[in-house]
Amino acid sequence: MTVEHWSGTGSELAERIKHKRPRHLVVISRDKYRPHLYLDADEVARQVGGSAEIVIVENGRTTYELEENLPPGDAVYGNAGRVYPGDLLGYSHTHPSVPILAERADLVGQRTQDLINLVHGMPMLRRDHQRAALAAAEAEVSGTVVGVHDSGEIAYVLLEDGTVTPVRHDSLVPGVRLDWYLPEQLEVAGTLTDAGLDLRHSLLKQQIMDVYSYGDVVLALVKKVRDDYAYLEPLPGDGIRVSRNDVTSNEHDSLTDMLTVGEVVPARLISKKGKQRLCLHDVGDDDPIHACPSLIAGGAPWLVYGRNLPPKRYDDGAPADAESAPEVPSEPEDGADAVDAAEAPAPPVAGAPADRTAAATDAAGQPARVVPQAGIDAEQLGELTGAMGELLREVAPLKALLAGAQRGLVGPSGGKDSGLREQLREQQAEIARLREEVDRHKQQVRDIRRRAKGAKAQHPTRRGLAVDDFLTVEDALRHEVYVEWVSRVDAAEKPHFPLPDHYDVGPKFADSFVALQPDTQGKALKALVDILTGRAQKIPSRQVHALRTGDGGDDPQMERADGSKCFRASVEVNAPSARRIHYWKKPDGTIELHEVVVHDKTTV
Question: What segments bear the compositional bias annotation Low complexity (predicted)?
Answer without folding.
Answer: 319-328, 351-366
